[in-house]
């Protein structure tokens, strides 16, 4: 306890124990005395709850609970004068801030100042109000106080964590893939393999370039999975207790007529580079396919193309392709693509009478299987062969339209099988089909599936239907339902293993972390919180994005195994969100922006053997970018993106302008349902579309006002925003903050919010949009991509570029 400083004046006596009642002096009319001002900092004064005495040596030797607490002693000693018997406060030690202003033995107050203090204290006590001790700087901070709720729409952009903008690539790699050195080295090798490529994967030059198998599984993983698949299917076939097995019957031409998708006419397509396009016609329902060269010109009869090396194919599916999937194959030159197709009339808006008429026809579903021939190069990769693809086989059923299809990720060991195909049908059930291979000399077959191999449904709950599903491994499938629950199923034996209420609304998308983390299941509801659940321990291991989001479009969630994370539409509460985000499985709520788009997203595809990303938009354009370079880009690097091609559809009644039917009435276009123009040849551009757009708008507004000085400052600020745009998990807040005023029409030339670019809200021709896309999961053909448009056209492209 600090040493007390004694005053030379006499003290008033005080008693021990409880606080004595103050002795009231004779009531006199006392004039108010204003204290004299002292030099330096004034001494703080406050009322004293207990008078302080200077005990004798004998009394100090006795134990006292209050004296044992040095904090209490210091507070009592530092009290200011405040009531009768409080004259001892003059001898209390001054505040720490003022302790250096006095020397030992100095009297801190004069007699007049002491009398003034006593008078003020007596007047306060006579009024019945006890003064409270003035809080210090430390006591003003309440550690248990709850921060007020921010009613402003502009959220605070404050983040402290491993993914700050100042963090360099080594730190991010360590947090995402560490702390084991072996895993960090794998991440470095993967990043070095693809970082120099800007927008598209490169064709392999040696073993250290090109697509690669996932490094996150042990050696021999695929062989082990194939062996397990063979043993599993053998047990299933030898089980005599199975009452119902898959059964297919071949249909005649008359029997298959109700199931076939019948286009309304021929489709005219303009192909080739701009200014040198050629016209090709696809007869409706003829299943015609064309092989294209590097300039996207048809190889058949092409005399202008300088290079006749095929780069892909194009064919007309005749309807809307809701889903497509590549069959997993090992060391096979033939690649098989499955498509579920519905007529264009399904997405029209009939009136009530017509709706009942179409109800019976919509119970028919169809799945087509196309085969594409390839050839091996010296480095064992596959390139397209100059042969048109053929329709391998067609499956039909009466369970409703086929909405989604997904192959079992493990390729079969039996040469007579293409694999197991999961199908989500219109009746709200998931069925698994065993797809047989077609012999080389056998013609295309048309079969009707009477009984599936497995059926996954919950018959006890009325109205609960399946909406999405994903394969976990050969014998496990996770299914999402209309009530927001996720269920894990076993195929053989068929049983429901677990079911969890992850969401509260319709599940739109599900993705599994196969092959390295198969039991990590990410899901997106129509509205709510995107979630990540580990189904090996679902009651404990789960997380999600903390902002309420809206997801109205499927095919916008996929796992990327090289990056060990999920790629999806950026979680946002706005239906006009056009960004793509990456969510690492360790830091799922921290979303890192991968790409921005000039139009609404309709689908995306993430590579299985590389980190490259494809996005399809509502305006018919397809974009590509290197997701790894965008995520781990340094300050000096500027990631790029590329518009692969643009698809534009126009119906026949609009050939000569809106509402014109003259062209459709001509004989040349009598049986034509529409025309498509495909444009290619765009240059790469910076992958910061929104930042560039805002900066350009700011420049135009400032130029009109003629404020040169402010223009220079804001231009530098925009450049800083462009540099800081990459790598912040809270970047979306910036756009939402600016859009809060933009939507109200507050953007003007007077320095207000920048008007929001409305290209994302433009409505295009319905059949212009891109429907679905998928990278090939097979290593030899990992650079192949299948892209389907709403017009019915399907393009299969070899997007590999030659590395310099």
TrEMBL record:
Region annotation Disordered: where it falls in the sequence: 1-145, 693-759
Record's keyword annotation contains Transmembrane: no
Residue ranges with Basic residues bias: 1-14, 35-44, 693-715
Acidic residues bias spans: 20-29, 55-78, 87-123, 719-751
Organism whose genome encodes this protein: Lomentospora prolificans
Gene3D superfamilies reported for this sequence: YVTN repeat-like/Quinoprotein amine dehydrogenase (2.130.10.10)
A biological-process GO annotation: transcription by RNA polymerase III
InterPro entries: GTF3C_component, WD40/YVTN_repeat-like_dom_sf, WD40_repeat_dom_sf
Entry's localization field: Nucleus
Cellular-component GO terms for this entry: nucleus; transcription factor TFIIIC complex
Keywords from the UniProt entry: Nucleus, Transcription
The keyword rRNA-binding belongs to this UniProt entry's keyword annotation: no
SUPFAM superfamilies attached to this UniProt entry: WD40 repeat-like (SSF50978)
Protein name as it appears in the record: Uncharacterized protein
Highest taxon of the lineage: Eukaryota
């Amino acid at each position: 306890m600090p040493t007390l400083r004694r005053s030379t004046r006499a003290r008033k006596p005080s008693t021990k124990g409880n606080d004595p009642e103050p002795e009231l002096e004779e009531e006199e009319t006392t004039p108010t005395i204003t204290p004299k001002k002292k030099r330096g900092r004034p001494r703080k004064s406050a009322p004293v709850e207990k008078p302080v005495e200077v005990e004798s040596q004998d009394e100090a030797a006795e134990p006292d609970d209050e004296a044992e607490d040095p904090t209490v002693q210091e507070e009592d000693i530092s009290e200011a004068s405040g009531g009768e018997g409080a004259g001892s406060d003059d001898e209390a030690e001054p505040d720490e801030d003022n302790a250096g202003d006095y020397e030992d033995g100095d009297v801190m107050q004069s007699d007049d100042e002491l009398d003034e203090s006593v008078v003020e204290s007596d007047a306060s006590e006579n009024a019945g109000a006890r003064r409270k001790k003035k809080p210090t700087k430390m006591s003003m901070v309440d550690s248990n106080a709850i921060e007020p709720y921010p009613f402003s729409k502009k959220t605070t952009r404050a983040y402290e964590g491993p993914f700050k903008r100042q963090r360099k690539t080594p730190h991010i790699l360590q947090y995402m893939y560490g702390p084991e050195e072996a895993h960090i080295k794998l991440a470095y090798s993967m990043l070095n393999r693809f970082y120099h490529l800007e927008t598209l994967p490169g064709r392999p030059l040696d073993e250290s370039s090109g697509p690669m198998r996932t490094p996150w599984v042990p050696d021999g993983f695929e062989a082990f999975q194939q062996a397990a698949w063979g043993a599993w299917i053998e047990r299933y076939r030898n089980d005599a207790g199975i009452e119902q097995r898959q059964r297919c019957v071949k249909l005649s031409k008359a029997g298959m007529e109700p199931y076939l998708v019948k286009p309304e006419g021929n489709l005219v397509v303009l192909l080739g580079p701009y200014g040198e396009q050629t016209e090709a016609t696809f007869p409706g329902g003829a299943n015609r396919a064309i092989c294209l060269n590097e300039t996207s010109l048809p190889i058949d009869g092409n005399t202008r193309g300088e290079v006749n090396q095929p780069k892909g194919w194009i064919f007309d599916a005749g309807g809307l392709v809701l889903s497509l999937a590549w069959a997993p194959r090992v060391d096979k030159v033939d690649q098989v693509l499955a498509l579920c197709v519905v007529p264009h009339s399904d997405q029209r808006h009939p009136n009530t009478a017509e709706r009942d008429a179409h109800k019976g026809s919509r119970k028919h579903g169809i799945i087509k299987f196309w085969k594409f021939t390839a050839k091996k190069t010296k480095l064992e990769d596959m390139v397209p062969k100059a042969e048109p693809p053929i329709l391998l086989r067609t499956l039909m059923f009466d369970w409703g339209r086929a909405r989604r299809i997904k192959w079992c990720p493990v390729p079969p060991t039996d040469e007579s099988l293409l694999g197991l195909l999961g199908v989500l049908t219109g009746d709200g059930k998931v069925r698994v089909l065993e797809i047989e291979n077609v012999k080389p000399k056998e013609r295309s077959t048309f079969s009707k599936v009477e009984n599936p191999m497995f059926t996954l449904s919950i018959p006890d709950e009325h109205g609960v239907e399946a909406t999405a599903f994903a394969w976990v491994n050969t014998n496990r499938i996770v299914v999402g339902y209309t009530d927001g629950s996720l269920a894990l199923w076993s195929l053989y034996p068929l049983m429901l293993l677990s079911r969890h209420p992850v969401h509260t609304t319709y599940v739109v998308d599900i993705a599994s972390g196969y092959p390295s983390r198969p039991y990590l299941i990410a899901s997106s509801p129509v509205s709510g919180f995107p979630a990540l659940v580990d189904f090996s321990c679902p009651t404990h291991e789960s997380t999600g994005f903390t902002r309420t989001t809206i997801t109205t479009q499927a095919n916008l969630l996929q796992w990327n195994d090289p990056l060990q994370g999920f790629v999806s539409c950026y979680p946002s509460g706005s239906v006009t969100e056009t960004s793509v985000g990456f969510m690492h499985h360790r830091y799922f709520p921290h979303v890192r922006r991968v790409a921005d788009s000039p139009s609404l997203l309709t689908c995306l595809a993430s590579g299985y053997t590389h980190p490259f990303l494809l996005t399809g938009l509502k305006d018919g354009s397809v974009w590509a970018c290197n997701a790894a370079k965008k995520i781990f880009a340094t300050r000096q690097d500027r990631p790029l993106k590329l518009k692969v091609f643009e698809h534009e559809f126009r119906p026949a009644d609009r050939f000569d302008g809106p509402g014109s039917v003259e062209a459709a009435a001509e004989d040349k276009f009598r049986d034509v349902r529409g025309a498509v123009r495909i444009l290619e040849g765009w240059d790469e551009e910076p992958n910061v579309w929104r930042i560039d757009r805002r900066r350009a708008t700011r420049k135009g507004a400032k130029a009109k006002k003629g404020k040169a000085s402010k223009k220079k400052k804001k231009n530098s600020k925009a450049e800083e925003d462009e540099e800081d745009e990459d790598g912040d998990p809270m970047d979306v807040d910036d756009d939402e903050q600016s859009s809060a005023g933009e939507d109200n029409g507050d953007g003007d030339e007077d320095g207000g919010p920048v008007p929001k670019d409305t290209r994302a809200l433009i409505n295009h021709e319905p059949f212009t949009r891109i429907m679905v896309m998928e990278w090939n999961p097979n290593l030899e053909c990992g650079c192949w991509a299948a892209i389907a448009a709403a017009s019915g056209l399907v393009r299969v492209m070899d997007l590999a570029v030659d590395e310099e």
